[in-house]
Amino acid sequence: AAGVIQSPRHLIKEKRETATLKCYPIPRHDTVYWYQQGPGQDPQFLISFYEKMQSDKGSIPDRFSAQQFSDYHSELNMSSLELGDSALYFCASSSQGSTNEKLFFGSGTQLSVL
Amino acid sequence: AQSVAQPEDQVKVAEGNPLTVKCTYSVSGNPYLFWYVQYPNRGLQFLLKYITGDNLVKGSYGFEAEFNKSQTSFHLKKPSALVSDSALYFCAVRDYGQNFVFGPGTRLSVLP
Predict the structure, then answer these.
(1) Chain B contact for A58, CB < 8 A?
(2) Three-class secondary structure of residue A33 per DSSP
(3) pLDDT (tens digit, 9 = 90+) per residue, A15-25?
């Protein structure tokens, strides 16, 4: 079965550079969530989209932006990268409209800022 | 506001012994409760969920969890632990239409 696809798997950037992370949800899933997990920390919610509109916003820095496209894939754009942005970035997808929904997670993008 | 607590940073058990990973929650409405597992260098994987119905929920890899409304708990259990169960376990909660909130995680170490 198709899963949530994230690219790239690993990304190395330097301070003040920009990065773009991509997420392809499970087919027919209309909701995408982005989570950041720092070393030894629990996943922190960044932002979510439902039907290409932002649905919820968490602890996402102003330097970051995201969007969901017409094919439901999502991109997280990160500018002016800082050392503290080094983390594992998870994307998850789900299908709204059901109380039974659960999240399906991608394998994550490991971002290292040097 | 929703919140999840996992009071133990780490749990160690011997292989073959029963294990329990604790989770308590706070949510305004009816809780939807989940357990996820994270193996080293892997993404989060779904284990089980409670939406409604039987308080004892059975999930993947022989895990189960018991929903206790009066104690607002959703402890993860397994009758006989395996070394391969060693991983990071996250409890999560959500209200309908709301975002998932994850607990801080509990590292389970199963000793041979």
Answers:
(1) yes
(2) strand
(3) 999 999 999 99
